[in-house]
User: Fold DUF8175 domain-containing protein from Streptomyces neyagawaensis.
Amino acid sequence: MLNSGRARGGSGEWEQPFWQQRGWILSAGFLGVLVVLAALFAVTGNGAEQSTGASGDPSPAPTSTSDSGSGSGSGDGGSKDRPAGCRTDDSVQAKPTKAPRDFHWKANGTGLVPVSRTAGPLKYDGPVWSCFARTPMGAVMAAHSITDHLSYDGWLEVVDRQVVPGAGRDALIKTRTQSGDKSTTGSPDAGGYTGFTVLTYNRSQATVMVLVSGMGGGGYGSASVTVRWQDGDWKLVPEADGTIYGGVSQVSGTDGFVTWEA
Assistant:
């Protein structure tokens, strides 16, 4: 999980999220980011100023909103095009101004991830949490869940099923293979997840900025994640070099972000 950087359940390097491990950082060439945000983000690569996260995909995102089974303006969730057993209400297409009423934290290893019965995920298959609403809020939930699960054992299944194929996914697999898995022991907490904002959205692709706490001096850090609608669900779109976070920066507060409120 994108968190404050302290290891839980032990002090060993391999118990930390993979983007905080020295092997991951060195292999990805993120030493410049390490100097600034070592305790928070190290998966920024050289694309920190690119928030779209789509350069690693073999083809551009479709822009049409008239694809079959879209469910726009209805509650059918595009069930004809969705995986078996997945049905969501996709009628709310406005960018969220507050967290869902039914949002709660769900344990994933030693961290907690925001989930919602209305926005998703609605299906839990081991490390793969899927079936997100085709809405801005569904994209937010997917951005949190998919990236968080890349820290733990089972990450390869997550990559296979929830990352858009292409050069970016290949690079992510190559770099992630060199790192250990985060420990699943210890008491879960909400880590650093503090808030979010939807930077861009259409029914085919969205870029979400995640806000986390735990920076030195009580500050905050933010980073963007891009997801694309493919095969009936949101999937992560890494950069060509395997980077999953872009636009990494320190921020002074929560202004401009929707905050998670338990």
User: Anything to note?
Assistant: The first helix runs from residue 22 to 28. Residues 13-259 form one domain. The chain has five helices and ten strands. The chain has one domain: 13-259.
